């Protein structure tokens, strides 16, 4: 796909500036002895040359996104970050943030991100995709924990972005008033209906799956089955009127900074091309994300 005329109309609603799209361990090494500013600048340049000038990061625990927040204006980029994501001890999330053991510590982390200039709260409430067998790597947090985390963040004046997979966790988060649901894999029809009736914006990051097809890292049969399920959910969500925005999870494996958003646009086109005017609906969700975050 050729880059669109500057600026590209959609923002990148989910990315990680410290990751490189190729090797997570190498990305960590690049930041482990202090913020590697050149990584930030190289990635910003990839966005700028494609006309992508609005970015929402998912956080890290190296200080990289905090420094990126300071550099972004040099590139004409509006950059939003939680500084670090927040996860419960013993559960997935350490690669992008900091942990809490109880809600007192959780509230304390929100205070810390406020002091560091974070724009919103990013929470981790479920595991990640198991591309070898399908399904998820671990059980999600309890419905009560999910509700309380979202409530506390809202009480503190922040919008909430949540790493969410699995039907139960997605429904609990939607019912709790989540602002932005990331990934949302394996939602069932009743949850998608609840999503459509809510104010939650869904950022499905589908190219984290689609770009794995043919790569050989995971069984293609499993990856293709997950991708087909994602397409069905996108179509159902669209028909029901859910709000969906483009975010590629750029920096994840095979999702490159800048190009990842164009890939996500193409994936949406494949899934929603039968619906005339789908882009206008997605742009409205994009505008809602920018207003909230």
Q: Secondary-structure blueprint of this entry?
A:
Blueprint: E1 12-15, H1 24-31, H2 37-49, E2 54-57, H3 64-71, E3 78-80, E4 85-88, E5 97-100, H4 103-115, E6 121-124, H5 143-155, E7 160-165, H6 167-175, E8 180-185, H7 189-196, E9 201-203, H8 207-210, H9 220-240, E10 243-244, H10 259-272, H11 278-292
Parallel strand pairs: 1-2, 2-3, 4-5, 4-6, 6-7, 7-8, 8-9, 9-10
Explain what the structure shows.
The chain has 293 residues and is an alpha/beta fold. The mean pLDDT is 95. The protein is built from eleven helices and ten strands. The strands form two sheets. It has a seven-stranded parallel β-sheet, with helices on both faces. Strands 1-2-3 form a three-stranded parallel β-sheet.
What features would you highlight for this structure?
10 strands; three-stranded parallel beta sheet; single chain; seven-stranded parallel beta sheet; 293 residues; globular
């Amino acid at each position: 796909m050729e880059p669109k005329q500057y600026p590209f109309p959609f923002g990148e609603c989910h990315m990680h500036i410290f990751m490189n799209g190729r090797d997570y361990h190498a990305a960590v090494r690049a930041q482990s002895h202090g913020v590697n500013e050149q990584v930030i600048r190289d990635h910003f340049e990839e966005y700028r040359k494609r006309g992508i000038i609005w970015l929402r990061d998912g956080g890290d625990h190296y200080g990289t996104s905090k420094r990126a927040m300071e550099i972004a204006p040099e590139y004409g980029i509006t950059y939003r970050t939680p500084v670090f994501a927040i996860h419960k001890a013993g559960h997935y999330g350490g690669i992008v943030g900091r942990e809490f053991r109880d809600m007192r510590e959780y509230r304390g982390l929100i205070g810390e991100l406020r002091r560091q200039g974070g724009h919103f709260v990013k929470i981790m409430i479920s595991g990640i995709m198991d591309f070898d067998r399908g399904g998820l790597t671990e059980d999600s947090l309890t419905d009560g924990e999910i509700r309380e985390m979202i409530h506390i963040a809202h009480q503190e004046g922040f919008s909430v972005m949540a790493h969410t997979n699995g039907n139960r966790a997605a429904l609990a988060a939607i019912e709790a008033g989540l602002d932005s649901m990331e990934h949302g894999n394996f939602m069932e029809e009743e949850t998608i209906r609840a999503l459509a009736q809510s104010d939650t914006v869904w950022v499905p990051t589908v190219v984290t799956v689609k770009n794995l097809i043919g790569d050989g890292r995971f069984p293609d049969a499993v990856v293709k089955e997950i991708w087909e399920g994602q397409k069905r959910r996108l179509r159902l969500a669209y028909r029901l009127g859910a709000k969906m925005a483009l975010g590629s999870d750029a920096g994840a494996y095979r999702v490159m900074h800048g190009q990842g958003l164009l890939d996500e646009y193409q994936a949406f086109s494949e899934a929603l091309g039968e619906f005339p005017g789908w882009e206008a609906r997605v742009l409205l969700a994009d505008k809602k994300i920018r207003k909230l975050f």
